[in-house]
Amino acid sequence: MANITKKVSWSSRTDESGAAGEGTPLLNGSEQPKLSRQLSGGGSIFQIGRLSTVDLEEEITSEEDSLRGRPKEIPHNEKLLSLKYESLDYDNIENQLFLEEERRMSYMGFRCLEISRWVVCGLIGFLTGLIACMIDIVVEELAGIKYQVVKWNIEKFTEVGGLSISLILWAVLNSVFVMMGAIVVAFFEPIAAGSGIPQIKCYLNGVKIPRVVRLKTLVVKVFGVICSVVGGLAVGKEGPMIHSGAVVAAGVSQGRSTSLKRDFKIFEYFRRDTEKRDFVSAGAAAGVSAAFGAPVGGVLFSLEEGASFWNQMLTWRIFFASMISTFTLNFFLSIYHNNPGDLSNPGLINFGRFETDSVTYNLYEIPLFIAMGAIGGLLGALFNVLNYWLTIFRIRYVHRPCLQVMEAMLVAAVTATVSFTMIYFSNDCQPLGPEHTEEYPLQLFCADGEYNSMATAFFNTPERSVRSLFHNQPGSYNPLTLGLFTLTYFFLACWTYGLAVSAGVFIPSLLIGAAWGRLCGILLASITSTGSIWADPGKYALIGAAAQLGGIVRMTLSLTVIMVEATGNVTYGLPIMLVLMTSKIVGDYFVEGLYDIHIKLQSVPFLHWEAPATSHWLTAREVMSSPVTCLNRIEKVGTIVDVLSNTSTNHNGFPVVVQVAGSDEPAKLCGLILRSQLIVLLKHKVFVELARSRLTQRKLQLKDFRDAYPRFPPIQSIHVSQDERECMMDLTEFMNATPYTVPMETSLPRVFKLFRALGLRHLVVVDDENRVVGLVTRKDLARYHLGKHGLEELQLAQT
Amino acid sequence: MANITKKVSWSSRTDESGAAGEGTPLLNGSEQPKLSRQLSGGGSIFQIGRLSTVDLEEEITSEEDSLRGRPKEIPHNEKLLSLKYESLDYDNIENQLFLEEERRMSYMGFRCLEISRWVVCGLIGFLTGLIACMIDIVVEELAGIKYQVVKWNIEKFTEVGGLSISLILWAVLNSVFVMMGAIVVAFFEPIAAGSGIPQIKCYLNGVKIPRVVRLKTLVVKVFGVICSVVGGLAVGKEGPMIHSGAVVAAGVSQGRSTSLKRDFKIFEYFRRDTEKRDFVSAGAAAGVSAAFGAPVGGVLFSLEEGASFWNQMLTWRIFFASMISTFTLNFFLSIYHNNPGDLSNPGLINFGRFETDSVTYNLYEIPLFIAMGAIGGLLGALFNVLNYWLTIFRIRYVHRPCLQVMEAMLVAAVTATVSFTMIYFSNDCQPLGPEHTEEYPLQLFCADGEYNSMATAFFNTPERSVRSLFHNQPGSYNPLTLGLFTLTYFFLACWTYGLAVSAGVFIPSLLIGAAWGRLCGILLASITSTGSIWADPGKYALIGAAAQLGGIVRMTLSLTVIMVEATGNVTYGLPIMLVLMTSKIVGDYFVEGLYDIHIKLQSVPFLHWEAPATSHWLTAREVMSSPVTCLNRIEKVGTIVDVLSNTSTNHNGFPVVVQVAGSDEPAKLCGLILRSQLIVLLKHKVFVELARSRLTQRKLQLKDFRDAYPRFPPIQSIHVSQDERECMMDLTEFMNATPYTVPMETSLPRVFKLFRALGLRHLVVVDDENRVVGLVTRKDLARYHLGKHGLEELQLAQT
């Protein structure tokens, strides 16, 4: 839709080879079935037009980055597919070392491993719960102080006049908090911005998002989310919990931290993408579980967003982590709330208990619910479209950290001002109940013993506002209050999402939905004769909240379960499902879900569940990249160094071929080796000649590869002398001897299914003589998508 | 453990080639890497030692069966793997016909298909809900009449003496109902016996269980389950609902019925295993959903038992079917209960509403719950071991239908007698509450205004008994009553499961668990000082029920959700999870789950989630079957007929190879063709010579294959004349040109992962020149399992 200049905000780094991808043929289809093999003397180094950019220099580049200042801006178009993102390896590299290790391991060894997986999951759950608890308590305390100060100030000035001073106090307090949050995010770790859910979705999908599961990111995220919630922005602290859980998982499971430069020498077996992904799934689930008190919802979230291959044992471990997480949070919160041991009140957001009597619904309400689902879908689509344009605007104009901080502060100040104005001009006074359900009742210009109803919505943390909308007695809000609140909060929330602060969109969505839902309930009660009996405003607030949230994020199964678990009552299961489905169908008609929009704007090569329906006419031949750079089974070191140093191609996987000595026949595939493996080999100088001279030296082990994981050094950092360049390297032991292959005639859906189901990174395309003719990677498959005019092909770019 | 003579009870058919599998080498490992290819003149028909028995003659054989009388008995050992069971084809056969059709289809075509998938799922849900509703109402009415008659009789004879007449009346009534149920099952459709869950598990796993999704099976199942529940057996009607849902799904999605001989000419696209499996998943989920009012639990059940490849759209459809099913059941039941439109009371079994006040639990109760989980695991293991021995006994001695009917009648009479005796000798009298919560209160020898407490447990449908145990006031049962009830019901339920009646084990398990759980609660209340405050017997009954059920069936995630949904309150989520996990861990230490035991006793080649942990030393070379019978791309009709008619091998898939003309080189793989496809080709006489002579004749289409699905005629029914035998057949268009292949060195876990993730039926093993060296099928992978002494290999047999 828009062709704009952008700075990639998920990672503030750009590649040197920025404009390299241009001019390469994007459809190397049947026009060029003949392979232009360039056989170099003795070796078989085939050049390749386009292949993945390496992402191994992460550590280095980010340091360089700060030196070379702000990166240059690159033309950007959302129909692009970035070559910057690498794939994760969810397929075990079954080389001889790996098989030897597995074969050596006894049955007891596997049992111990399984037990340590459970232990890690338990730890993940425990730590995630603790973090959630910490965030909750700090936010509660700080927000309490802030609202008390402002309330005291307002009360002081209500009588003597000069409420503008209160307004300024409020706005300044908010801005200061938000400024702190925005500074850490914008200057120290831009990846910590937003809810983190799109990033975790990508990670679980198999895309490596740089720095997304680092300890530093976690620290910034936690600090940032506290600041932005206390700063009174229209945000929630739930989305970030999911990201936090994932970071905890990635950290704990590896038994070391690069940020802290500590290696605990434990869990070394888990130092590969396959295992790490499983733990990150568990972490994300634990995060959801802590955020909403929804362990089953957490498991479903992980599965819905991540898993392609469903494994029962894994699911149970994820479930266990979720369970421990809810339990930990509950336990510590119950102590904090001076009610130790009461575990029945879970989650960061708690919808409060819906009483059994008020939750019944009737058949004739179902169409009403569905209609509300449709409204939620429409409003959600509007929200997403507005946020889309806003994001484009931000990418174009607001990409400097200082500008981002200023925008965040502006939003904070405007939020305070709008809230204050709304409260000031509202004349919706309600009697103060005897049980003091309101935390910070503002009397303002109401009579004694009354409070301002608008203030319960605005002058409160969003979680409490949601609860008030669900549970306050019918009549607590008048329709005008709700209408105005919906309108203003809708635009505030829309403006807020995408700021350089850590914050989620769940709670604002729920709040908007609850407000207009309650409004619907009130209207129904007034226009129908029996409505006042069945049209409980709290019930309609819940349905509205589900509709709005569904319309914005477009999850169904997991969201249903999350909502049901958060309400603590399964009676609403059916209506919530119906509402979420309707809102998804209606919303999808206009625009994608919010997370998908943001993923697309980052040009991430995201693989959906299935290949586009009409892609059967494409075959591996058209899809694959070719020619492929291949290596010989015994290859010259110099050749390998040259291949790895070639910055214009930057491949990550190389088919290993074997040539029949003295024969003219083309080489046959015998394995696949990764750049990261080659780098470790070069670093340890595993050369044939050296092996002969120092026989006593220890053999290279799997441990050496694990120690280097996941941040392998760049090729530039490895010194290879001129003599060494003439040595040979035997790759036999290290290559994956049984890579998955497909024939050239395989249809795209079939290739896609194999690739997605097994979580591959490279898929070798061979001819009927088992000779390498091409390589399929994630970008080759993600390029094709179903647009409005049938199958479309995205452009590849280095951005 | 036992080496016994058996008749396979899941399908009363045996193969002619009964003893064929004997003497074949079972580990064709590295001792025989050389392939003994037997090249027949011109063709390349390789003979094969052992491969799958065909299951295409189903229709015919079952007719023959009744003619040739009872099948002979075959030595049986549970360490066998039956060759009788065929695999389903979950991998699309991408031949030219299929690709042409897919390529012709427009985007709108795919949309319509997607919509019709939703329509089918809606229909599945609706019909499953209707069936559940019908079963519920009929059982309710018939059981009501039965209990009223007996109650009236007992009341009459209590005063005048002669209660033995009442006992006889009760026992006879029960036996008559059970006899009817057992007769239809034993004589008409043995596959309808039991809960059907093991069979559906196998189906979803990819094993073709003959006649499991037929309309006839459904009718017998529904009639049978009504009879057995009304007959007062210790059974539930929930398990059979899952089977019923699956049958409905398989029927509706195919748009025709073989039993009714009707073809509605709709949903023809869905006539293949891939699509059918998806619908059967939805049907099973709808069944769970109707049985327990647990739509999310249903989805999770389907996924936990079935899906290997998680697909978001599919999950949503399954969810939709579940939702509709609960909704339908609810709606019609609400009308039946004269409360139309009240949808808040779902499911066949309803645990009743747990009030919020009584459901809170404290931290110090968690260890108690875990201890109860352990007890549940132990009792569950005991149940399973007893039932295992009983099943072995039945396989050996009680395999004639008349014996089976007599055993069922005996159980029914004993159940009635035991119940009567227990009630008679019980002196646990309770005051009759004013609200008459008991449906059939038996006064017996109690004072006026009191009722016999033992009778609420025994003189009632099991569903009502469970509800009483959960919800009756503390003090409604005395400990002795509960103890005796647990003891007797445990053995009755154990004896009952496996009878030739349609019945489930869910409700009896819940009932046993609820009884001892309530007992625990009462004991806790009496031995601790504050126990009477927190130890609510209803709460402990629920925990006990979960523990017992978990200990018997060993599901965790789906069962947790089912229990939570059935209680209508998520507060118990955490304790239920803990309890189910504990009971699974404890139970698994002793013996497998009940369903797995029954699957194993049937020697089904069931594939678990992962290859055994210590199987890395096995490679495709050791696992595969070889040599393989291959066909040429253009093959003589006579050769094909001979290959298909060879009853000693009975292969189902044949690699298609191409030979370079005039060259000595071995043939290269170019495709894979199935027996079923060859049979359709032969039937339509698609011979090269004929094609030339009648050019105008229509080409063979995908429709012809679909019309023959799933019951392809046997080769014997196809007449091929001597002239035609000399014709040639061109397989190019019909074979799957891009079958998945692996090299010989691939490790077993890798082969397993590919096979399981993609739902394959045949996986071709090739050498580095792309020549066929072997074929891996389901049995080759299912053979290896982790026994007590490491990796064990099951024997293959034709039984």
Automatic annotation (TrEMBL), chains A, B:
UniProt record similarity statement: Belongs to the chloride channel (TC 2.A.49) family.
SUPFAM superfamilies (UniProt xref): CBS-domain pair (SSF54631), Clc chloride channel (SSF81340)
Gene Ontology terms: cellular component: lysosomal membrane
PANTHER family: CHLORIDE CHANNEL PROTEIN CLC FAMILY MEMBER (PTHR11689), H(+)_CL(-) EXCHANGE TRANSPORTER 7 (PTHR11689:SF136)
Matching Pfam families: CBS (PF00571), Voltage_CLC (PF00654)
Mode of membrane association: Multi-pass membrane protein
Molecular function per GO: chloride channel activity; chloride:proton antiporter activity
Domain CBS: 735-793
Region called Disordered, residue ranges: 1-41
Name recorded for this polypeptide: Chloride channel protein
The UniProt record lists the keyword Transmembrane: yes
Record's compositionally biased regions (Polar residues): 1-12, 27-39
Regions that span the bilayer: 118-139, 167-188, 218-236, 279-302, 314-336, 366-390, 402-425, 480-500, 506-528, 540-564, 570-591
Superkingdom of source: Eukaryota
Compartment list: Membrane
Keywords: CBS domain, Chloride, Ion transport, Membrane, Repeat, Transmembrane, Transmembrane helix, Transport
